[in-house]
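Quick sanity check, Phosphoglycerate mutase:
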Amino acid sequence: MQAGRLASRLRGEAISAIHTSPQPRTCQTAAAIAAAAGLADPRIVPELDEVDFGSWSGRTFDDLDRDVAFRRWNEVRSFSRTPAGESMHDVQSRILRHMEAAAHELGDRTITLVSHADVIKAVVIYQLGLSIDAWQRFEVEPASITRIEVTGWAWKLLGLNEVVW
């Protein structure tokens, strides 16, 4: 339902390419957007994947809330790392590398990236020149739109967390 409304909202946009995280929920959203835009299948891009939570993967939030390391991760991400997984700096580096490569490859054409809240937050934080620890200061809802213009000399945040459902 959210994916369908998002796809309808983006139908009139001049989207040239869609890149998506390999997770099933993002692939479904990307496929709905591609169908509405009349584009070929989205390109699956590992750099858009969710944070690798390492040994925390598969555990419930109730269980994790009792873990001191998990609480620290959520309080001070600039100095924390998921056990056997990624730091937020790792996440930020991989998404920014992909965005720069995609901008170089496709020039001034519009690319839709379908990813996850923490990954999107890592980009916005970079764009605004904030610390990784600012990740809790704003929301990125599921199936929302955040717009960033990437040009050769500047990145501009044009919109954040536009909810269409």
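Posting the structure with no commentary besides this: The beta strands are 15-20, 43-44, 110-114, 144-150, 155-163.
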